[in-house]
Design brief:
The protein is an alpha/beta fold. The chain folds into 3 domains: 176 residues, Rossmann fold, CATH 3.40.50; 166 residues, P-loop containing nucleotide triphosphate hydrolases (Rossmann fold, 3-Layer(aba) Sandwich); 70 residues, no CATH class. The protein is built from 16 helices and 18 strands. A hairpin with a 5-residue loop joins strand 17 and strand 18. It is globular, with a radius of gyration of 23 Å.
């Protein structure tokens, strides 16, 4: 097989890592860079027993098939795939192997390669337990998004895995930038409202990672998302496009839409294995035109011919947003572009994924940037809002709601009456915004204080 330049460089860097003193390394590999190929070639660089871990059976099967297509032998250890074989090279899911680590210890497993390494790779979880029990010498984690969402008293913020003390993977050993591999991507045609949507009712759950089910329902109804999805399907048909992957917040909403679209099926976490396989295979063969999807097929779903994605599910997770768009960027002869129809304001919130890149800054720390600002927490440079937005804030000062911190979801006027010192702190240089919404909070605090002649 002829490897792409980014794959050649990734494998060179992995080989250097194997022969270094480091025990862990992160390989940043965007969607459609051929991670299964990189994993297969990386496995061949080890000469001792190795486990390849994936978060789900679909990704496991994909990576296993790529490795064995070279003529190499490997085992599968996965309860959902009804196989519990241990070998020199074992493709596995962590939930399956955790109860049988002794079998892997007996054959002397020394290396672990983890795909989608941003999932569950902190100290104290199952991966850490596996590494300690087996006394793993070399750990490699591959991911397109080497970031965690962290919580603080001021709210949630993004942090590079390499800068998080709890991360199992702390050393970035290779980065392929999206900009380096765009010729291997199908161009994304974003369709979204520049004015955004009414997201005032969205509330974060207790983890801070995403929105509550109740507030998602309110958002979905308030913004007429079902109607917009049905209109989007009709719009695509007018363009001659008769397939789309559709994301919605709940099963009830998915079923309601499916009942109104010919050739649509619903897929969610509770879908039984055989039914899920039927739907996925039917979608890939174009026998099924639309899959209305609830928190499934966001990772590891490989369908290069996919022509369109309809996003009816707002998210607070950059990783989720990135992964969902990534389902459509793979090249295929049947399409010249992939449509991403964002009905819920995610593009307004996160931007276009082609703009994201990873750079080393102070003290050689890696951070994530878009075309204008640093996205991860350290040294965050907020986007400056326009004068029209400031005037809009002043007009609506009495209805503005704080987005984060100790007064999250409080009306601004309530905070003025309750705790002026908090607003003064938020308006001062001591308060460093960690997101666009917190920057907007800061601007609103300044305007409120000026409005009431407090500063």
């Amino acid at each position: 097989m002829i490897l792409r330049p980014n794959q050649v460089q990734a494998l060179k860097d992995i080989n250097d890592f194997i022969h270094s003193d480091l025990d862990n390394g992160i390989v940043v590999s965007p969607v459609a860079t051929g991670k299964s190929i990189i994993i297969a070639e990386a496995v061949k660089l080890f000469n001792t027993p190795t486990i390849c871990l994936q978060p789900n059976k679909e990704l496991l099967k994909q990576n296993y098939d790529k490795y064995t297509s070279y003529g190499f032998k490997a085992s599968i250890y996965s309860a959902s795939l009804k196989s519990r074989e241990v070998g020199q090279v074992t493709y596995a899911t962590i939930g399956s192997i955790i109860s049988d680590l002794e079998s892997f210890k007996q054959i002397g497993v020394q290396n672990i390669i983890v795909d989608e390494a941003h999932y569950s790779s902190k100290e104290g979880n199952q991966l850490a337990e596996v590494c300690r029990f087996l006394n793993i010498k070399k750990k490699i984690g591959l991911t397109a998004t080497p970031i965690f969402l962290r919580n603080s008293q001021e709210g949630a913020f993004l942090q590079m895995m390499s800068n998080n003390r709890e991360s199992i993977f702390r050393n970035i050993i290779h980065v392929t930038q999206i900009q380096d591999i765009q010729k291997y991507w199908t161009p994304i045609n974003y369709k979204y409202s520049k004015e955004g949507v009414n997201s005032s009712m969205l509330q974060l759950n207790t983890t801070g990672r995403d929105y509550t089910a109740e507030s998602l329902k309110k958002f979905y109804d308030a913004n007429s998302i079902e109607y917009k999805i049905l209109r989007s399907v009709s719009w695509l048909k007018e363009k001659g496009i008769y397939q789309a992957l559709i994301f919605v917040p709940s099963v009830a909403e998915a079923e309601s839409i499916a009942a109104q679209i010919i050739g649509a099926e619903v897929l969610h976490g509770g879908t039984k294995s055989k039914e899920r396989e039927r739907i996925v295979n039917g979608f890939k063969s174009a026998e099924i035109s639309y899959v209305i999807n609830v928190d499934v097929l966001g990772t590891g779903f490989d369908y290069p011919a996919l022509p369109a994605i309809i996003h009816g599910r707002p998210t607070n997770s950059f990783v989720t947003y990135y992964q969902h768009i990534g389902r459509g960027v793979r090249l295929h002869e049947s399409k010249k572009e992939v449509f991403f129809l964002d009905l819920v304001g995610n593009v307004n919130k996160f931007g276009k994924i082609e703009d994201f890149k990873f750079e080393q800054g102070k003290k050689e720390k890696w951070e994530m940037w878009d075309s204008e600002k640093q996205i991860t927490h350290n040294g965050f440079k907020p986007k400056i809002i326009s004068m029209s937005e400031i005037l809009e804030l002043e007009e609506n000062i009495r209805s503005y709601t704080i987005s984060s911190g100790k007064y999250a979801n409080y009306n601004l006027i309530e905070v003025v009456k309750k705790d002026k010192r908090y607003l003064q702190w938020m308006a001062s240089s001591k308060y460093e915004p960690f997101s666009e919404s917190s920057q907007r909070d800061k601007e609103s605090a300044i305007i409120a204080l000026k409005h009431f002649n407090i500063i």
